[in-house]
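Worked example 2:
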Amino acid sequence: MTPRQQPQPSEPVVGEAPRLDLVRSWPAGVPTTATMRISDVLAALKAEFPALTHSKLRFLEEQGLVEPVRTPAGYRQYSRAHVERLRYALAQQRDAYLPLRVIKEQLAELDAGLADASTGPHAVQEGVVYAPLRAADRETAASLATDLGVEESFVVALVEGGIVRLDDRGGFDAWARQIVLHASALAEHGVEPRHLRALRTAVDREVGLVEQVVAPSRAKLGRNAKARAEASAVELGESFTQLHAAMLRQSVARLDLG
C-alpha cells in the first residue's frame, strides 16, 4: 500500500470553532469542532459513568488524557472527539483497572495509528462494550469482514443495500464498523441486509428532520454559527437515538408471545 501523504498544517479559518488535529488525534470520523462546555460533557457521559464529576474531568485534563480548547476568556470547550477520548479513558479505568499512565500511552498509540484491536478503543453504548475500533482511517470490505468475523459478501451486501455508507474517501469509518457488527448479530436470527432497508429509510427521514431544525442556525451569519449548528445536530441525533430505543423497547415489551 502506498503511504498516504500527510496533509500540511493550515491556518485556522476565521469564524470556525477550533478543531483537533485529525492527523494526530484519535478518533477519526468524529466531529472535532469544540463547542461543548464542561457541563455538556458531563451530561453526555453521566449515564455511563455516574460518579463522574467536574473535578474528575479537570483531573483527566491535568493528566494529559484530553486537551480541551480554551476560549479567549479562559473557558474550556470540548468536541465530540474529546468526549469519545474521555469515554475510552474512563471505560479503561473502570473495566480494565488500568492506571491513567497506561491509558495515556494507549491513547498515544491510537493517535499514532499503532494500536491493534486488543488495545484499541471500543464502541460503547449505554455502558456495554461492543466492537473494537481501529485507528486506521480507511479499510476495505475484506479487511473489515476479517476483523469482525463476517463474510466479505455480507459487508458488500450492506453497502449495496445502502445500509452501510462509505465516507468521503471511500473507506469505512467507526460508525460503519458498528453497523456491520449489529447487522451481523441480526443476521444470526435470519434478518438479512435487504430487511434493513426500511430502517435506513427511517434513519434518513430522521436526519431530514434534523436538517430542518438546524437550518435556521446554519443560515445565520456570525462567529461560530456553523459550529453551533453542528452541535445542535449532534444533540438532536442523540435525542432521536434515545427516543427510537425507548419506543422500540416499549413495543417489544408489549409483544404477545404467549
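The two ends are 56 Å apart (CA to CA). The chain has a mean pLDDT of 78.
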